[in-house]
Write a structure and sequence with these properties.
Elements lengths: L5 E2 L8 E2 L2 E2 L6 E13 L5 E7 L14 E3 L4 E3 L4 E6 L2 H12 L7 H7 L4 E3 L6 E7 L2 E2 L2 E2 L2 E7 L9 H16 L1 H10 L1 H7 L2 H58 L1
Parallel strand pairs: 1-4
Antiparallel strand pairs: 2-3, 4-5, 4-9, 4-10, 5-8, 6-7, 10-13, 11-12
Length: 256
């Protein structure tokens, strides 16, 4: 893939009108996404992917809903970009995925045809892709042209510093959806461990999980400690109250 494209996130893209941004410039970028869904278009030669890097853009939206549920992920629609590509690319993408991620099966064309042929959720397949995009706006929404889509695997020796930063953030955002990762750990742990780098899984998921359990344990002890303090204070008050009548009696006796 060409190296001259700027590395961006969705939130970094300026507003567009037609094929020009607000400063009347064209823009080509290299982006990294998690694929959420594939669906057919009116053109039988093309399909569309719904993808996300978990950042948002004002020209990415859905008039009908604010969030969209997939197989397991739930994503806000202002973070879901629709990109169009030729249907004949699906087999090469699936093949590249299987070659790069040993033991992980993927057949996007089959997924599409086996689910009524209209659309198929792909979030649980953990398809992380790089692609070059030429940006444009159509009907008020961003609809970029896509070039050179490819499956990626974490390899910092083959990445520029900015690429490392953006891809790290993508892994982190995926792992921050704990319910999604919890599901994969139970249902497809081989795929999870093959695709998500172990150091990221530890740093952004397992360590946080241990910290959360520790905090929960501390929070569970707090009510006990609070109750102990409350009981101790009540005992002190009770002891003081028991002594007060005797003092009053003595004082009363003195007065008499």
């Amino acid at each position: 893939m060409s190296r001259h494209y700027q590395i961006r996130k969705l939130e970094d893209i300026p507003r567009f009108k037609g094929d020009k941004d607000e400063q009347n410039r064209t823009l080509k970028t290299k982006m990294f996404f998690l694929v959420l869904n594939v669906f057919k278009t009116h053109d039988h030669r093309r399909i569309k992917f719904e993808v996300t890097d978990f950042t948002s853009h004002p020209q990415v939206f859905d008039e009908t809903c604010e969030v969209r549920p997939y197989d397991k992920l739930v994503v806000k629609t202002n973070k879901i970009l629709k990109i169009c590509l030729f249907k004949d690319k699906l087999n090469s993408i699936s093949q590249c995925y299987e070659e790069m991620h040993k033991g992980c099966k993927l057949n996007i064309a089959n997924e599409l045809s086996s689910r009524s042929g209209a659309s198929a959720n792909l979030d649980s397949k953990l398809i992380i892709m790089a692609m070059n995009l030429k940006w444009r706006e159509h009907g008020g929404k961003l609809e970029p042209f896509i070039y050179d889509p490819e499956i990626i695997k974490w390899d910092p020796t083959q990445m520029e510093q900015r690429e490392q930063q953006v891809v790290t953030d993508l892994y982190k955002n995926i792992l921050n959806h704990r319910y999604f990762i919890d599901h994969l750990r139970k249902s497809d742990v081989i795929r999870l461990k093959e695709i998500i780098p172990s150091n990221f899984l530890k740093q952004f998921y397992l360590d946080k999980d241990n910290l959360r359990k520790e905090n929960n344990s501390n929070n569970a002890q707090q009510p006990v400690n609070t109750e102990r303090k409350r009981n101790s204070k009540q005992m002190e008050q009770s002891t003081t109250q028991n002594k007060r009548p005797r003092i009053n009696n003595v004082l009363a006796t003195v007065k008499v």
